[in-house]
């Protein structure tokens, strides 16, 4: 957890937390929110559900497209996205959700906004779902990747 602490002291690029259910991804997010609260007023936490919900709402509003919504959603100095991939990738919306995640990670990179992303998908599982370019950007050596799988399953203990 030392690298997580270091990242929080000077957040940049992406902090990626990977681990199966119960390994403390959401717990880590709320601990980070508690830590950031007094230090940073301009951060935002999203679950994948919430993030996608806003995107779907935007594309269902006439005259709106999701790129403008992505810009609005990223208008913070630090972002947290909990549970990437948790909604699954059904055949009919797989491409769209891939596209949204790509747009978000791309915009974070372009705008140089630090972000925390959590997922229970490992690199090879992400590679099955997402584009190679997306996975390589996520695992870029400038990012910090923390594998929580060695943590015990807190829910079962
Ligand atoms: N470091 C920790 N110390 C104490 N309890 C923890 C810790 N990490 C997780 N937990 C508890 O374990 C359970 C599962 O954690 P959670 O963050 O929901 O896992 P995940 O989001 O990875 O599925 C929760 O009840 C949480 O409060
Ligand atoms: Mg969780």
Summarize the structure.
With 157 residues, the protein is α/β, with parallel strands linked by helices. The protein has helices at 2-9, 25-36, 48-59, 66-73, 91-111, 123-129, 132-138; strands at residues 14-18, 43-47, 78-84, 115-119, 144-147.
Top CATH class? Alpha Beta
Instruction: Tell me roughly what share of residues is in helical segments.
Output: 40-55%
Mean pLDDT figure: 93
CATH topology: Rossmann fold
Helix-strand string:
HEHEHHEHEHHE
Q: Tell me the radius of gyration.
A: 15 Å
Can you list the ligands bound to this structure?
Answer: adenosine-5'-diphosphate, magnesium ion
What would the principal axes of the Cα set say about the shape?
globular
CATH architecture level-2 label: 3-Layer(aba) Sandwich
Write up this protein.
With 157 residues, this protein is of the alpha/beta class. The chain has seven helices and five strands; from the N terminus they run αβαβααβαβααβ. Strand 3 (78-84), helix 5 (91-111) and strand 4 (115-119) form a beta-alpha-beta unit. The model has no long low-confidence stretch (mean pLDDT 93). Bound molecules: adenosine-5'-diphosphate and magnesium ion. Adenosine-5'-diphosphate is lined by residues 19, 21-27, 154-155.
């Amino acid at each position: 957890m030392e690298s997580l602490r270091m990242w929080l002291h000077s957040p940049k690029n992406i902090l990626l937390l990977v681990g199966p259910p119960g390994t403390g991804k959401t717990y880590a997010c709320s601990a980070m929110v508690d830590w950031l609260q007094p230090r940073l007023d301009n951060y935002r936490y999203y679950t994948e559900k919430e993030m996608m919900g806003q995107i779907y709402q935007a594309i269902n509003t006439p005259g709106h497209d999701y790129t403008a919504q992505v810009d609005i959603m990223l208008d913070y100095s630090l972002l947290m996205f909990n549970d990437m991939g948790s909604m699954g990738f059904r055949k009919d919306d797989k491409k769209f959700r891939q596209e949204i995640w790509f747009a978000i990670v791309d915009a974070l990179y372009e705008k140089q906004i630090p972000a925390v992303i959590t997922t229970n998908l490992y690199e090879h599982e992400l590679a099955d779902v997402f584009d190679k370019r997306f996975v390589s950007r996520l695992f870029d050596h400038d990012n910090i990747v923390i594998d929580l799988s060695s943590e015990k399953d807190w829910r079962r203990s």
